[in-house]
Specification:
The chain is mainly α and about 90 residues long. The protein has 5 helices and no strands. It folds into 2 domains: about 35 residues, no CATH class; about 55 residues. About 50% of the residues lie in helices and about 0% in strands.
Length: about 90
């Protein structure tokens, strides 16, 4: 808006978005890549113990034990620094 001297309304019309979105973008130009919210559903200590007790378990088995999704277990394991086992569903 400062380079071509467009108003918020003109910029919103040009990009096909609302003027509030343009205003928000103008305040924070860098994209937000991380969340400031901790994981609360999966206990880190319990997951670390499960990884030590059952090192050969698949993600879907761990997900069943913790009653969460496979992607949730995968993310929690990444936070702990463990790699995941591959799924047998897709050869």
């Amino acid at each position: 808006m400062s380079e071509k001297k467009l108003t918020l309304k003109e910029a919103a019309e040009r990009f096909g978005v609302g003027s509030v979105s343009v205003s928000r973008w103008q305040k924070n130009l860098e994209p937000i890549l991380t969340r400031n919210k901790p994981a609360i559903k999966i206990d880190r200590d319990a997951l670390a113990k499960d990884l030590a007790d059952y090192p050969d378990s698949y993600l879907y088995e761990r997900a069943e034990r913790f009653a969460v999704s496979v992607s949730g277990i995968c993310s929690a394991m990444k936070r702990l620094g463990f790699s995941r086992k591959k799924s047998l569903k897709y050869p």
